[in-house]
Specification:
This protein is α+β, with helices and mostly antiparallel strands. It contains 3 helices and 7 strands. It has helices at residues 13-36, 43-64, 123-140, and strands at 8-10, 67-70, 74-78, 83-87, 91-95, 104-107, 112-114. Helix 1 (13-36) runs antiparallel to helix 2 (43-64). The protein is elongated and about 65 Å long.
Length: 160
């Protein structure tokens, strides 16, 4: 597959739709319930219910904001809790085994980070996004040449 033009952003569609949809339903339900609750519920109880619903909506937002952004400088992985920024020189490979929830990106320092911005549950979109990301990694992250361009190692001992 041909590498896409930079910058490019991958986001899961279904995850965002479900997370934000549930957030709207939860918040609307909490507000309606708070308004309809009678005795012995106080206004403090009603406000606490709405605050709790807002916290749940905040957690759903953390799941919905995940993405992968590729630009000329490198990759930005925005996962539910952490954001990782790496240059192309640090990116080694990306892979997603059958049944994995999202791909894993390997970096030159030996770490591996899950990239939640591509969701395995979105089969066709995930395969297309993974192929595009692989093409970008091969285009930007690999050193020019290959094993044939490495100069031969001289094994002779120095006579001095």
């Amino acid at each position: 597959m041909r590498a896409p033009e930079l910058p490019v952003t991958w986001r899961p569609r279904r995850t965002r739709l479900v997370a934000y949809g549930f957030a709207v339903v939860i918040m609307a339900g909490a507000v309606v319930l708070a308004l309809l609750m009678g005795e012995p519920w106080t206004w403090g109880d009603r406000i606490a219910l709405i605050v709790f619903a807002a916290l749940v909506c905040g957690l759903l937002h953390l799941l919905a904001r995940v993405r992968i952004v590729a630009d000329r400088q490198g990759l930005t992985l925005v996962n539910a809790v952490r954001t990782h920024r790496r240059s192309w020189a640090e990116v080694v490979d990306v892979g997603m085994a059958e049944g994995d929830p999202w791909p894993k990106i390997d970096f030159s320092d030996g770490t591996t980070v899950g990239a939640m911005g591509i969701q395995g549950s979105e089969k066709a979109a995930a395969h297309r996004a993974l192929a595009e990301l692989e093409a970008l990694i091969h285009q930007h992250a690999e050193a020019p040449g290959g094993p044939d361009d490495i100069p031969p190692h001289d094994t002779k001992e120095d006579p001095a």
